[in-house]
Predict the 3D structure of the following.
Amino acid sequence: MATAEKARVGMYENVKNQFEKAAAVMGLDESVKKILSITNNEIVVHFPVKMDNGKVEVFTGYRVQHNNALGPYKGGLRYHHTVDIDAARALATWMTWKTSLAGLPYGGGKGGIQIDPKLYSQGELERITRRFTYALGDNIGPEHDIPAPDVNTNAQMMAWIADTYMSTKSPAERSKNQHVVTGKPVGSGGLEGRDRATGFGVVVTLESWAKVKGTSLEGKKYIVQGFGNVGYWAAHFMNKNGAILVGVQDATGTIYNPEGIDPEALLRYQTDNATITGFKGTQEYDSKSFFGIDCDIIIPAALGNQITDENASDIKAMVVAEGANGPTDTEGEAILIANGVDIIPDILCNSGGVIGSYFEWLQNRNGEIWTMDDVIVKLRKKIEEAFGKVITSSAQFKTDWRTAAYIVALTRIEMAYKQRGIFP
Ligand SMILES: NC(=O)C1=CN([C@@H]2O[C@H](COP(=O)(O)OP(=O)(O)OC[C@H]3O[C@@H](n4cnc5c(N)ncnc54)[C@H](O)[C@@H]3O)[C@@H](O)[C@H]2O)C=CC1
Ligand SMILES: O=C(O)CCC(=O)C(=O)O
């Protein structure tokens, strides 16, 4: 498992490298390039919270708003000790490209708190989340900047955010603000299927990849890094396609079974034991050699900067499907491309989450209740459309899929700036 330090260092550098490359290949307008090279707003808040022992701790929270040319800022909140301004900038910028590529009326934002949530009780996490929301104030808002879940945040926390934000509004305005956050529990404005949207989307992109390659996912061996929201649901849908999970790595360890690991049984084991290690039928595996496991497909679904020049050349898989944001750094990517390994880039591969969030936002805004079937059908359609655009762009510009995806995203933003006049 890559170190937490590796997971953070240079994430923003990677985004800039990717952006520069795409801007050069497509010939992005220089003024638009200047605008997109910086973040619009960077909000850093320090806020006190009373702990269970009666003492006060002060926390640091971030919300970076990269760009809103296409609509309100949109993106998750991460609770992790690697959260800092560099990580928030990188993740916010990726959101701008992701929402544009998916054809959504959103820009990009991201944030979180520099914290290890395992060290806090549920009551403390609730107070931390509520105080963070209060500290952000109207820097977030249903038509301005809409957070969602990310690493170590979940539907419960989104409900606390909605409740806290709505409570700051007048009684008549409260219910108009439910879509200040997405990824809420079903029953509190949440969308059926938002829980699985990202993992499902990862697998839809892999199905599309398989079609392009004239193959199928049936019988393909795969490994997953991260067995949280994205990793588990991706494994769930991979197995429905007849693929075989042979390795899993998370923050607690690395397990391997060449005969196959049942994701449903592993989830139950993890829920009961708070670890994946020791799961029946599996052996512990050297964490540093994880990506070198003999398999066809790798799904990184944890942190950034996991596939680097230290391990990329060990990879035997045909394709890396980036469930995580920024799992492959610039050097790692160059090695994969040289070795003929396909990469389904994060801004396409994991876009099912924000597309699901968009559906939830529409549901709240329009006072509708969508069904699971509505969600799954519409999600698949949007992801397949985006995948098709990336393939077309890759052929047109004779470039790799990540650069091609950036070109689709940047073209849409460039057009919006040109239509409205770059400098009004
Ligand atoms: N939740 C969502 O809807 C979306 C999430 N993503 C991205 O997917 C990735 C995973 O997010 P979630 O599943 O939501 O988070 P999560 O908190 O549910 O799961 C994170 C997983 O990563 C593992 N992990 C943490 N540190 C690790 C390390 N050093 N080595 C190996 N594994 C480690 C954890 O043990 C856990 O299994 C992140 O990069 C996130 O930004 C992207 C799009 C949407
Ligand atoms: O659902 C959302 O709004 C954003 C999810 C997210 O943080 C991401 O796509 O990286």
The chain has a mean pLDDT of 96. The radius of gyration is 20 Å. The first helix runs from residue 4 to 8. The chain has 15 helices and 13 strands.
